[in-house]
Write a structure and sequence with these properties.
3 helices, two-stranded antiparallel ribbon
Length: 90
């Protein structure tokens, strides 16, 4: 499912226009992104939790040359599915 299909589902499920559904989705995604950038967690009960993990710097190997390279530390987004979502997928 892509963003356009998701907007159509939201509009149909909420009984609103696609324009309003797009605004709502964009606002929700922006709010989640802003919270993660600020270092906060976003918990949606029954759906899941978005958080930020920090990966430390490490050494890796360039597969083409087999030389050792330094991989910089970075922050990555993480999602953990909630119990209701996990149960729905069974």
């Amino acid at each position: 499912m892509n963003k356009t299909e998701l907007i159509e589902k939201i509009a149909a499920g909420a009984g609103i226009t696609k324009v309003d559904a797009k605004k709502a989705l964009d606002a929700a995604v922006s709010a989640v992104k802003d919270a993660l950038v600020a270092g906060d967690k976003v918990s949606l009960i029954g759906f899941g939790t978005f958080s930020v993990n920090e990966r430390p710097a490490r050494k890796g190997i360039n597969p083409a040359t087999k030389e050792e390279i330094a991989i910089a530390a970075k922050k990555v987004a993480k999602f953990k599915a909630g119990a209701e979502l996990v149960d729905a997928l069974k």
